[in-house]
Amino acid sequence: MRVMVGVVFAMAGYWKVFKLTPMGHARKLFIEQFSDTWIPHALLWSLGVTIPFVELIAGAFLIVGLFRRACAIVLGSLLLVVTYGHLLKEPLFDIHPYIFTRLILLLPAMVLGSIDDRWSLDAWREGVLSRSRASQPLPKS
């Protein structure tokens, strides 16, 4: 699930960074759609330009299992922002096909420890650290 949701976010971020461009993303999906709301333009620009990089980097980190929990929490927060935006424009917006499915895929990465995800860089790092700690002599009293 971690790899699948990582691919989904990384590919979305890749498209927004390299095809649409962060400025194009901000203009098309934030400024044009939400300029008539209470949200300040500076915040719209900031979110619109930043989100593509967050999706790309956090998605790539999820694919390899690096900083899994932190990335899942950041991407879950991003889903909250997106949900709020959609509901601001359309109060009965259906979150099921897009947002809810991504959240369900993110939940295991949020809740499970790296010990439960043997095929991640986090588990490898923890294994290396625990082996190096075990090989160190105990401090003398």
Give the low-pLDDT segments. none
- List the helices and strands in order: HHHHHH
Average pLDDT figure: 88
Structural class: mainly alpha
Rg from alpha-carbon coordinates: 19 Å
Number of domains: 1
Distance between the termini: 47 Å
- What is the β-strand count? 0
Largest sheet: none
Number of helices: 6
Shape: elongated
Helix content: over 70%
How much strand?
A: under 5%
Task: Explain the overall architecture.
By secondary structure, the chain is mainly α. It has one domain (2-135). It has helices at 2-20, 22-34, 41-64, 68-89, 96-111, 121-135. The protein is elongated. The termini are far apart.
Question: Concise description?
Answer:
The chain is mostly helical. The chain has six helices and no strands.
Task: Write a concise keyword list for the protein shown above.
141 residues; mainly alpha; 6 helices; 77% helix; elongated
